[in-house]
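chain below, 395 aa
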Amino acid sequence: MQAPGLLETLAWLLAWAAGITALSIGLQRLARRAPFWVQLVIVVAATVGVFVAGVVNAFNAMAIAESDLWAVWIILAAAGAVAIAMSLVLGFRLSRSTSKLIVDAARIGRGEVLGGDLPPAARAAGSSELTALADELARTSRRLEESRAREAAIEAARRELVAWISHDLRTPLAAVRAMAEALEDGVATDASDYHRRMIAETDHMAVMVNDLLELSTLEAGTLTLRVEPLELYDLASDVMAELAPLAAQRGISLNGGESSGCRVVADARTASRALRNVVLNAIMYSVEGGTVTVGLGQGSAPDGSREALVWVQDTCRGIAEEDLPHLFAPGWRKSESRGRTVGHNGSGSLYAGAGVGLSVVAGIVQAHGGRVTVENRDGGCRFTLAFPVDGTGAG
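prediction:
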């Protein structure tokens, strides 16, 4: 074939290709909401059409006999039919796999697929992309299941916490009401003692309410820290001086270690509250006549950074190992008796916490970028509060 004839053939081929491409694009737009197999057939048919146009133009340019040209037409038609049939098979297969993935995605949304347990048919989706999509759906299912489990656990803890709070607030309220009625009826033998007890009960309720408010700010992430250089020894001394009368009333020996240069950058109010909660917890759960020791020191965090440590050792006879991970969960109690400690608040009634004191401790320390741990040691428990020395974790 001479150069002019070849150029003319190429020109006709490009013209046919442009027309067929424009037609296929128009059909694709019309069928954009049609099943995948329809769009695949359009693409294959367009490809076959361009190929047929090129072959026919080439044969016309080479002046092939008309009888031979009809044979070529028949062969091309058969090849085109086979190609379209194969595209239909592939398209139906992909459409079926996609439909299964859609059904599985809907099941995941309804929570019917647990732990990423997709059927084998969904995993063998017919292409690497769809198989990868099926695997991602399985991972999403597992994450959703874990999220639902966490949400259910949190909701259960909240309901339990509300129940405990209702119970714990009802006791001092009933005591205050009873004493107020006794004063009103004139049956109180010592009015000043009744007044002191009422004040103590209201202080007790105030502590519980403050714990709940502190916990709510910690969980909401709205706690504001006013950090400054602090000496942990001064912080521990103030807490021990505040709680010394309670320890003496229970016959608990409250001891403090010497300072070892434990200077940190922290918020004095919240850090003091965290330490107070831990020391108070140690006093209330130690056996009568026991010892509570507050110690200071320095150590290294898991990442190698320096941290200041304050630890509180009690004589509570220890805690079951399986219960240790739950101590800092809001509202958690081993049993109902766990909320009824053997100490008194000065009014004659038993201390009864809302089960959030240690949760507040963990939240405060973590807000400073530190960590809190607990372990059984020497016939009791040791709580360790670790604060970053440079205060970089404080927000």
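Confidence is low (pLDDT under 50) at residues 335-354. The two ends are 81 Å apart (CA to CA).
thats it, cya
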